[in-house]
Design goal:
The complex is a heterodimer of chains A (481) and B (450). Chain A is mainly alpha-helical and 481 residues long. Chain A is 65% helix and 1% strand. Chain A has 22 helices and 2 strands. In chain A, a hairpin with a 2-residue loop joins strand 1 and strand 2. In chain A, helix 1 packs across helix 7, helix 3 packs across helix 8 and helix 14 packs across helix 15. Chain B has a 6-stranded parallel β-sheet with strand order 3-2-1-4-5-6, with helices on both faces. A 6-stranded parallel β-sheet of chain B has the order 14-13-12-15-16-17, with helices on both faces. In chain B, a hairpin with a 2-residue loop joins strand 18 and strand 19. In chain B, helix 1 packs across helix 15, helix 7 crosses helix 10 and helix 7 packs across helix 15. Chain B starts with a strand and ends in a 13-residue tail after the last strand. Classes of the chains: A mainly alpha (481), B alpha/beta (450). Chains A and B meet through loops of A and strand 2 and helix 2 of B.
Chain lengths: 481, 450
Amino acid sequence: MSLNLRMVVHLLGWVLCIESLFLCFPLVASVIFWEPVIWVYVVVALGCLVVGFALTRCKPKRTDFYAPEGFVTVALSWILLGMTGSIPFVLTGEIPFYIDALFETVSGFTTTGATILTDVETLSKASLLWRSTTHWVGGMGVLVFVLAIIPLVGGHSIYLLRAESPGPSVSKFGPHMKDTAITLYKIYMAMTLIQMVLLLLGRVSLFDALNIAMSTAGTGGFGLYNTSIAGYSVYVQVVVAIFMLLFGVNFNLYYALLCRRAKDVFKSEELRVYLALAAFATITIAINIVRQVGSVSEALNQAFFQVTSIMSTTGFSTADFNLWPDYSRTLLVILTIIGACAGSTAGGMKISRVILLVKHVRRELRFLNHPRSVEVIHFEGKRVQHEVSRSVNAFLIVYLMIFVCSMVLLSADHFDFVTNFTATATTLGNVGPGLNVVGPLGNFSGFQPFSKLVLIFDMLAGRLELFPMLLLFTPSTWRNR
Amino acid sequence: MKIIIVGCGKIGSTLAGELSHSGHDLTIVDLNADRLSQLTNSLDIYGVQGSAASYQTLLEAGVRDADLLVSTVDADEINLLCCLIARQAGTPHVIARVRTPLYVDDIRFYREQMGLSMAISPELVTAQEISRLIRFPSAIKVEAFNKGRVELVELKIPERSGLNGKSVSNADKLQKSGVLVCMVRRGQEVMIPDGRFVLQSGDRIAVIVPPGKSRELLRLMGVEEEPIKSVILAGGGKISYYLGRILLREGIDVKIIERKPERATELSELLPGATIILGDCTDKELLTEEGVEDIQGFVSLTDLDEENVMLSLYVGTRSKAKLITKINHVSFDEVIDNLPIGSVVYPKEVVAGMIAQYVRTMQNSMGSSVETLHRLGGGAEALEFYVRANSPLIGKPLQDLQLKQNLLVCSIIRQGKNFVPRGKDALQAGDSVIIVTTQTGLNDLSDILK
């Protein structure tokens, strides 16, 4: 039997329909602010709806849906989202080149927040809102949204969740896939709304509050101004920093809180390490930059914001950390690579994978001393299954391979090593800013189109946890099984 | 309904498949993570890894607010313990699989004193199912409705039958005796026939008959039926023991062929009325010696599915005995249905069917009105509904109702008497109706409308 392509196409149709639904956000904004770009969003939204609806009419003949279909659907969905979502930017003339628009949109959906725009403030309100909307949708995942609204065949839909959600082992909350997807989006929406209200209390305009909240929720990082969040009050900066930290936490823990299982939350190893790492980085960076910044409180504020922004892979900034001392810069790059908790909207390698890798190394060391020792690795109070260990190790290897290949391809461009290294790390980790040319106040516009394509691949691979994108290019996925 | 299934072995996974397709909230508990993830990958259910007898695991699975827990792990003791914990934690209905004959006899105590809703011994229910087939040898399946007032009999139209080539409405012999053909299986296809449907030899049909009339019906169809007086059971496992016990009580001669000397001795102690033969039942000579050629019933009950199939095939060539084959694992029913091995009994499906029926009855008390449900294979179901006084269908002639496709109102039972409904008949409050359909998941009588 070959891949169930009709099913894949059917689901892609749904993805396009959802995209047209979300295109209504900028559409409404352009109506309110009465901007000339209104026709662009009307045309694109309608186009997506018509094509999407036509594709959903492609009724699957067979209902079999296994892991390959899951991976292929997810990978193709995200490529499709990027390709169609970039059309408005080209049509409005705000980003004339398609590759640039594609980079910007993929950066949006993958919640990277890396931009090729040299002056964000010239964009129309509608396009600004569309950028933030892509973050919000991309954060929790489009197919999770699809799962929440359509009645999907059978139980195999777990393969979709697994392919799109971050983390070494993905699980449902309850018996039904659909309920899990709905619960995830409910938590997500509630948290976004709370953040918006808090921002409004800090005298931020409604438009800004909506954009910042959506961008934070997806841990994206597209700002409305060239200076990102630096122009807002300290209160706003602290609110954003705290919410960035919160959106980097595994959503299963919020679900546990909802079920009044607070004990699980306190017991979570990953959360503890995440918070400890954030505290450690904040304090040491604050000490490191205090002389440069001037006051202790300002140093702590800037360090806390930058650390949470980088760890949660959001990429907002309130200071140009490119100018900070080397210790701080180095630590931030390392945090870029690590990322936040599994099952959150953040990117990176994920804290849980790092913990598992460290535990493996520790076991290996003990094994060298006691060659006959037997040791079972535990994580979150449960025994780690062999498959999970294997996939974590494979993840690391694939991560390094993609990293190295990207670096080599980027080096053909005309930038220095630090720029290339951090550009790769930041796109693969879905963070946004890197160092030097791609620093917090810089942008990616100087790269050649080919380099941009490489970085687009990195962003998609990073968001989908490497494997779906690779499987798309693996012949055996397409061959008869 | 929230249902917890403990153990994902044969019965657990069959049951999970069945119940999740009818839309229940399923949680499955098993110690083995591999087996668990295999099942949770293919079905929309929630998996909890842990020991069945651990309170913590069961709490995680949600025993506090579950409606039903079914424990199907290998060890009876764990099943009973698991049910006990669940009962104490607040699950109102608990079902345990209990297979050791010693405990099976104690089931009444567990039911009354420990609050067990149902104890299922797969071997006992399989034996009961087989005994029903032996009592009614030409049937492939016999199911009872309305406390036995009506029976649904599934049988094969024999060669040289008067029904061959006749349409359902033209088979006047059937018409006269008040028998309705409500389902036809031809090869893999399952059809709900209308009046123009032409029957063929080899079709498997399901008919609804009042219990007394079944013999008469068979005669009309050209099947000579003699009651079975002697059977050979190949293999001396637990099913053979239970089956032997039931058959001996009915005065049927039972011969059991068992390979292991210890078990053979044990059996002869347990079943003094039966003839126990020590030997290999795949030994052709032994079979001939024990009179396989004139035997009236032959039941293959060894542990190996392949051996059972081969045995039945062989005996089928040597005698005219009614063949019954037990199959544990093999899931190639497309192939098995076409083999001349008589009636096939799948213990896991018998058990899963019983539990699914229990679930239906539970739903019944929660608002649905399904009284009985039997699965006919190939996705068809026969359901019995009770017509409540507030049903919207009351008083309307059946011919005016917009019924769903592939759905047939086969029988109405009014004041203890059943009749095949005509287009002009209308339902009354207090009636029971039997519906045969390939549309699964009907919960209420009004669901039969489009």
